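User: Could you go from structure to sequence for me? I need the amino acid at each position, not a summary. Structure tokens:
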């Protein structure tokens, strides 16, 4: 299911292509769509008629001149439907409400320890969702559904948690998690959700590797704008790539030592600021010696990890998660360290970037999933 959800553009369905064109080139005329998509005018006119009937586009009052004649243009209606993204992280839950463009209309964060086996926890999730729906006056018919991102691998069919590594929730099903959610739901691995939010912010990027630097380290490989999952669904799990071979290296929750996760999770940094990663960057930029020391070691390891990924894939690397979002002004220093490891004349300025989505990128990506499912079924 996930592969299907993550597809976008390039559809052979003329209605979906027309919809996507108007969304990307708002407003558009039927003549323009026909010419640029290579579809016959009657085909486009029929697609436009259906999209108008569904409330997804409306005729614009401003007629455009097209090849000497005036033509009606059509506006995209991004607020016809909305979607909710939910990130159930270790110690908090983040909710975002998004329109059809993925623009965030509302968001909320609540502290709560992740426990998918607790009925009380699941009930609380349902109550918080209901509060958002009521606050924003959303009719059930306008809500496409809820995307739920979790710090665990999701089965290929999207129906259960294949591996809930950071807490004990392996095997928990979508039906169980959705017990108090009276809407359509979809489960996602948090790394995939973050990568998906990034895809939305880089419309011209075909291939990239997304690294999530949050309370754990994860990743996602995106090829031709689709997330690759691999033979056993482990593709992109760089958190357990070995960066240190010293037998005294820190122990990972996977049972091994020296994993990427042990040296680049944000807890390595915010140990100085009582778990507050924003405050860590504040004292780092103010010149705190202890913070500078931790950051120097952290970026040594991060540079090694990014370099290895670049050598393997030769595609852009996007740094996301809490750290990736906050380290924008520190990126030049990291790029220098990566360049010192590169054997050829490649320049990290050309292939290492910080996330373009905000701090709620995982919840944003979760909301986008329901929108993509809808758009593939128009
Ligand atoms: Zn590990």
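Assistant: Here is the amino acid at each position, in order:
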């Amino acid at each position: 299911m996930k592969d299907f959800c993550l597809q976008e553009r390039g559809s052979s369905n003329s209605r979906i292509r027309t919809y996507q064109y108007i969304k990307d080139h708002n407003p558009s005329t039927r003549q323009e769509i026909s010419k640029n998509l290579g579809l016959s005018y009657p085909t486009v006119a029929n697609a436009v008629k259906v999209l108008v009937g569904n409330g997804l586009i409306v005729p614009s009052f401003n007629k455009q001149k097209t090849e000497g004649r005036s033509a009606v243009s059509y506006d995209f209606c991004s607020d016809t439907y909305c979607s909710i993204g939910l990130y159930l992280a270790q110690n908090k839950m983040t909710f975002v409400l998004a329109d059809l463009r993925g623009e965030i209309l509302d968001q909320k964060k609540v502290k709560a320890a992740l426990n998918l086996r607790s009925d009380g926890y699941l009930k609380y999730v349902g109550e918080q969702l209901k509060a958002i729906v009521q606050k924003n006056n959303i009719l059930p018919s306008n809500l496409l559904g809820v995307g739920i991102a979790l710090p665990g691998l999701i089965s290929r069919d999207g129906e259960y948690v294949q591996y809930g590594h950071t807490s004990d929730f392996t095997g928990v099903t979508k039906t169980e998690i959705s017990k108090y959610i009276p809407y359509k739901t979809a489960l996602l691995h948090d790394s995939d959700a973050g990568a998906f939010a990034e895809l939305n912010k880089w419309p011209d990027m075909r291939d990239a590797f997304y690294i999530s630097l949050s309370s754990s380290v994860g990743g996602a490989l995106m090829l031709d704008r689709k997330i690759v999952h691999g033979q056993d669904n482990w593709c992109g799990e760089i958190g357990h790539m070995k960066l240190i071979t010293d037998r005294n290296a820190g122990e990972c929750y996977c049972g091994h030592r020296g994993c990427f996760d042990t040296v680049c999770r944000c807890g390595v940094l915010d140990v100085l600021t009582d778990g507050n990663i924003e405050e860590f960057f504040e004292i780092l930029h103010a010149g705190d010696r202890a913070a500078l020391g931790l950051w120097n070691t952290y970026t040594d390891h991060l540079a090694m990890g990014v370099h290895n990924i670049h050598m393997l894939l030769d595609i852009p690397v996007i740094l996301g998660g809490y750290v990736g979002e906050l380290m924008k002004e520190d990126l030049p220093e990291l790029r220098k360290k990566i360049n010192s490891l590169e054997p050829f004349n490649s320049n990290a300025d050309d292939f290492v970037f910080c996330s373009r989505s905000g701090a709620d990128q995982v919840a944003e990506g979760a909301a986008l999933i329901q929108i993509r499912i809808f758009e593939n079924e128009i």
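One structural detail worth keeping in mind: The first helix runs from residue 2 to 5.
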